Amino acid sequence: MFNDFLSNLTTVALQVLVLYLIAGVGFVADKTKIFTKADGKRLVDLLFNLILPITIINTFVSMERTREHIRGLGIAFVLAALTHVVGILLSTLSFRKKDVMTKGIYHYAITFSNAAFLALPLAESVVGKEGVFYSSCYVAVFNVFAFTYGINEISGKKAKINVKNLFLNPGSTSVIIGLPLFLLGVHFPDIIASTMSKIAACNSPMAMIVFGTFFANCNFKNIFAKKEIYYVSFLRLVVIPIIMMFALKLIGADNSMRTALVISASAPVATNTAMYSAKYDNDTALSSELVGQTSLFSIITMPVIVALSSII
After folding, report:
1. Residue percentage of the chain with pLDDT more than 70
2. What is d(CA 167, CA 29) in angstroms, rounded to the nearest whole number?
3. Which residue has the higher pLDDT, 224 or 41?
4. CB-neighbour burial class of residue 6 (10 A; exposed 0-12, middle 13-18, buried 19+)
5. Is the pLDDT of residue 172 over 90?
């Protein structure tokens, strides 16, 4: 068992290292002004609105329709929702004495992981197409919670929730399109399938380069100065994924689903925490510090958590 743990730890750690080396390209590009955070923000729109949906739809269409995969989708949606509910419950019990705006940032950070820009590329690297298949469910559920609970918290309970955004967002829409195509066994012509596959191949490197430009703008002195950030890191990187790990164990999930969903649950604080903070006039510095610390710690915690999930 220990040898299996070490083997899985090495495999995941190498994939995490590769992704962070790609992020390092973005970091250097920002510092040398070749490709800055402002450029990254524009590229986020391309990634989130076009490349990520194509990646998800392409995965659904190319995935073999089996009873196990159909059952797995249902389980993945339920467990992804459960993970967010656990995050909400833990955050509700935390930071009660903080003002509503600061509390909102901490609550958002505890609940929402970097599911699209880090977890999905990592799941693809470690598990392959099935990793994207199950992680896509997590991304869709993430968007439903982010556009309701998340925005309500990070705006200091000022933002009006737009119901259409629950479904008319790229993460959810791509699953809404891809799911029936998968269930009906639809396959695209080779020329379309090849085009989509090549676009989907851009998702991981582009997402990590953008991530690197945001990381380059963190205040590295501050990310280790506040004890509250360590508490968020502990909940986000350790407690929530361990709860997910045992939930997956209880239902007897197969290895691919278990790995993909644990990766999604154990990812650092969502990059869009800082973006939403800026949009709703909240503390962008604190948001960046939360993203920065959890991203650094996740280099160690994600491989350990994922390796543990494979042997319990």
Report:
1. 100
2. 35
3. 224
4. exposed
5. no
Structure tokens at 4: 């299996």
- Among residues 52, 44, 240, which one has the least CA distance to residue 132? 52
Structure-block tokens of residue 60 = 């659904």
Above 80 in pLDDT, residue 161? Answer: no
CB atoms under 10 Å from CB of 198, counted, come to 11
Q: Is the pLDDT of residue 164 over 80?
A: no
Q: Are 105 and 273 in contact (CB under 8 A)?
A: yes
Angstrom distance (rounded) from CA 288 to CA 102: 13
Between CA 236 and CA 247 the distance in angstroms is 16
Backbone angles phi, psi at 269, to 5 degrees: -55, 140
3-state percent helix, strand, coil for the chain, nearest multiple of 5: 80, 0, 20
Is it the case that residue 166 has pLDDT exceeding 90?
Answer: no
| 113: phi then psi, degrees, rounded to nearest 5 | -95, 170
- Helix/strand/coil for 133: helix
Decide if 76 contacts 257 (C-beta within 8 A). Answer: yes
From the CB of residue 296, how many other CB atoms can be counted at a distance below 10 Å?
18
**Distance of alpha carbon 299 from alpha carbon 164, whole angstroms:** 36
* pLDDT at residue 312 in the model: 78
Q: How far apart are CA 209 and CA 309, in angstroms?
A: 28
